[in-house]
Amino acid sequence: MPKPRIEIDNNNFYPGTAKTIHLSLPDLYNLTPIHLPVHVICGKTQGPTLFVTAAIHGDEINGIEIIRRLLKKSGLRKMAGNLIAIPIVNVYGFLNQKRHLMDKRDLNRCFPGSPTGSIASILADIICTKILPHITHAIDLHTGSHHRFNLPQIRTNLDIEENQTLALAFNSPVILHSKYRDGSLREYVNEKGIPFLLYEAGEALRFDELSIRTGVNGILSVMSTLGMISAGKYHVKKFTPTISRESTWVRAPLSGIIRPLKKSGQKIIKGQTIAIIANPTCNKEYKLVSPVSGIIIGDNKLPLVHEGEALFHIASFETLTVVSEQLDNIQDAFDLSDDESIF
Ligand SMILES: [Zn+2]
């Protein structure tokens, strides 16, 4: 018997094999058992171990589909290195179609967690103690929250050189420099010296085909950059992402109903009207103008807004035209009218 390359929770993984294991989590209160499915593909030869996660926020489901399509790719057992994927990290939130766990905790503020803490903390501890010791690189898949749509984008700390290399390899239209959030998986993994990308694309509880295809292509592209697979075999598409180190949220200056005049992916110039906010009980209208020039990388889809609500996320770039062209290239390359079905 050959020596196992990876051992997780008394499960051995051997070169050239793929297996799914189910780690035990705390039961529901009616004692329904809950498990965390972990997919492990052990490549034929030695190499990096890429960890891909989705649905740390339980209603952010685009990443679940990205991982499902990724694992369907043939020949991954022949790769160099290993792929560990957890498509539904926050199993409890996913069951309830909610971002948080039952106790309203945000799992992505609970890392590294504790075996004697809250249910979110127990889940975070299982990831940190059983999985993270095996990984060399990580990608965490998210979507916008609370009716907000995000243009496909990588968020990472670009001050770490290896993060920047991976971010460029991912081929998303936009890379946004972003610092850590306390207690996030990203903070914990990066502090361990492991390169980490956060992919934000689409909207909670919705599938967005462009976000899904950009995500699958991005992960395969990172794997080819790491020398795990050949880009040619998996038809990896190459684009030139544009980096932004500065972004601004445009918030509602008053409450009302909103009619957006711009959406994610579009260019906006400082002083240009970006939306009309109206009083729903009379004809009063307010023109909301953009305080900055840039590309809209996130926008609110709910037309009912309270004063102070985040409406548009605008990233600043040196040249706006380049970003617009790249977005067109990406949309053309993925030809969303073709018949590659979601299921
Ligand atoms: Zn999220």
Explain what this protein looks like in three dimensions.
This protein is 23% helix and 33% strand. α4 packs across α6 (209-225). The chain has two domains: 6-243, 3-Layer(aba) Sandwich (Aminopeptidase); 246-334, RNA polymerase II/Efflux pump adaptor protein, barrel-sandwich hybrid domain (OB fold (Dihydrolipoamide Acetyltransferase, E2P), Beta Barrel). With 343 residues, it is of the alpha+beta class. The protein has helices at residues 62-72, 91-95, 119-131, 161-170, 185-191, 209-225, 320-334, and strands spanning 6-8, 11-13, 17-25, 34-42, 45-54, 80-86, 137-144, 148-156, 174-177, 196-203, 242-244, 246-251, 256-260, 267-268, 273-278, 285-289, 294-300, 304-305, 310-316. Strands 3, 4, 5, 6, 7, 8, 9, 10, 11, 12, 14, 17 and 19 form a 13-stranded mixed sheet that branches. A four-stranded antiparallel sheet has the order 16-15-13-18, with no helix packed on it. Bound molecules: zinc ion. Zinc ion (ZN) binds next to loops.
